[in-house]
């Protein structure tokens, strides 16, 4: 009985950790790379105190999730260029692949929450299963 309970606890913990590393796409701004309702696998800048990805080490082409100052929900867009501000800090210019122009403001490293995990240049995507979440959240 104790071994069975331990197995369930491990399964629940693994499930929670995995769920924390999945992000539902809520808009079409990154089409055709991924679509609304797709789920992407992410690495976090801070997961329970562990830095899985350093927000200062990101590169042009990386797809990041950041807290925008121009939109209420986290934004998932690609870094198209990197700038050093007059304060000496690193800033990212981001853009949705399907958007005509870059996002309205620069992204500081402190705004970055996560990076989409890619194999080669392809992000790891689980198609369409996020629709349930979008429906529940009314998005």
Structure commentary:
- The structure is a single chain.
- With 139 residues, the protein is an alpha+beta fold.
- It has one domain (1-137): Umud Fragment, subunit A (Ribbon), CATH 2.10.109.
- Helices cover 18% and strands 30% of the residues.
- The chain has two helices and ten strands.
- It has helices spanning 2-19, 131-137, and strands at residues 22-24, 39-44, 63-66, 75-84, 90-95, 107-108, 112-116, 118-119, 122-123, 125-126.
- The strands form two sheets. Strands 1, 2, 3, 4, 5, 6, 7 and 10 form an eight-stranded antiparallel beta sheet that branches. The protein has a two-stranded antiparallel ribbon with strand order 8-9.
- A hairpin with a 2-residue loop joins strand 8 and strand 9 (122-123).
- The protein is globular, with a radius of gyration of 17 Å.
- The relative contact order is 0.21.
- The mean pLDDT is 89.
- It comes from Methanobacterium subterraneum.
- InterPro entries: LexA/Signal_pep-like_sf, Peptidase_S26, Peptidase_S26B.
- Keywords: Membrane, Transmembrane, Transmembrane helix.
- This is Signal peptidase I.
- It is found in: Membrane.
State the order of secondary-structure elements, H for helix, E for strand: HEEEEEEEEEEH
Count of discrete domains: 1
Outline the low-pLDDT stretches.
Answer: none
The CATH homologous superfamily is named Umud Fragment, subunit A
First CA to last CA: what distance?
43 Å
Radius of gyration: 17 Å
Can you identify the CATH class? Mainly Beta
Main sheet attributes: strand count, strand direction, barrel closure: 8 strands, antiparallel
User: Which bin fits the share of residues in helices?
Assistant: 10-25%
SS summary, helix count: 2
For this structure, the CATH topology is Umud Fragment, subunit A
- What is the total tally of β strands? 10
Apparent shape = globular
Tell me which CATH architecture applies here: Ribbon
Quote the beta fraction.
25-35%
InterPro entries: LexA/Signal_pep-like_sf, Peptidase_S26, Peptidase_S26B
GO molecular function: serine-type endopeptidase activity
Main location: membrane
Protein name: Signal peptidase I
